[in-house]
Amino acid sequence: MKIKKFIWPIRVYYEDTDAGGVVFYANYLKFFERARTEMLRSLGFEQDELAAAEGIIFVVRSVQVDYLNPARFNDLLQASAEVTVAKKVSLVFEQLITRGDDVLCKSVNRIACLDAQTMRPKAIPENLLELLTNEY
C-alpha cells in the first residue's frame, strides 16, 4: 500500500510544556490526534459528521510511542500521519513529530472504527477506506 504522508504544523505553546520547559510526554499523543483528524478533514470527512451520518466513531485501540528528543516552548513542529495498514474495521497509522529534519517522537497508532451507539466494531465506510488506502 502506497499512501502519501499527511503533514500538519504544530506550534508548541507554553501550556504544552512541563516544569522543565519541554513538551509534556502525553501532549505528543494530542499532536498525533490532531494530525489524524486534520488528515480526515483534508479528505472531506469531519468526525462529528461521520458519527451523525454514518453512526461511526474512531477510537485509539493501542499506541506505541518512542520519545527521541525534546520539543520546547515556541518550537514549530510537524506532525505526520500515514496509514500503513487498512482493514475493514481498523487502521494502523505510523506517525512522527519532527522539528525540521530532526525526529523527536514516533508512534504506531492502532485505530478501531466502532458503532457510535453499541461501541462494537463497525466497517469503515467504503468511500473513506478507498481514500485512505490510495495516494491522495
What would your notes on this structure say?
Belongs to the 4-hydroxybenzoyl-CoA thioesterase family. The longest helix is centred in the N-terminal third of the chain and has 16 residues, at 27-42. The chain has 136 residues and is an alpha+beta fold. The protein is elongated and about 45 Å long. The protein has helices spanning 27-42, 47-54, 126-132, and strands at 6-11, 56-67, 76-86, 90-99, 102-115. The chain has one domain (6-126): Hotdog Thioesterase (Thiol Ester Dehydrase, Chain A), CATH 3.10.129. It has a five-stranded antiparallel beta sheet with strand order 1-3-4-5-2. A hairpin with a 2-residue loop joins β4 and β5. The model has no long low-confidence stretch (mean pLDDT 94).
Which key features would you list for this structure?
136 residues, alpha+beta, Thiol Ester Dehydrase, Chain A, five-stranded antiparallel β-sheet, 3 helices, 5 strands, elongated
- Our measurement of the CA-to-CA distance between the termini, rounded to an integer number of angstroms, reads 12 Å
Task: Provide the CATH topology.
Answer: Thiol Ester Dehydrase, Chain A
Query: Biggest β-sheet: count, sense, barrel?
Result: 5 strands, antiparallel
How many strands in all?
A: 5
Strand order of the largest sheet: 1-3-4-5-2
Structural class, judged by helices and strands?
Answer: alpha+beta
Question: How many domains?
Answer: 1
Percent range of helical residues: 10-25%
Mean pLDDT: 94
**What Rg is obtained from the alpha carbons, in whole angstroms?**
15 Å
Give the overall shape, derived from the CA principal axes: elongated
User: Spans with pLDDT under 50 lasting ≥5 residues?
Assistant: none
CATH homologous superfamily identity: Hotdog Thioesterase
Give the second-level CATH assignment, the architecture: Roll
User: What is the percentage of strand-forming residues?
Assistant: 35-45%
CATH class, anyone? Alpha Beta
> What is the count of helical runs?
3
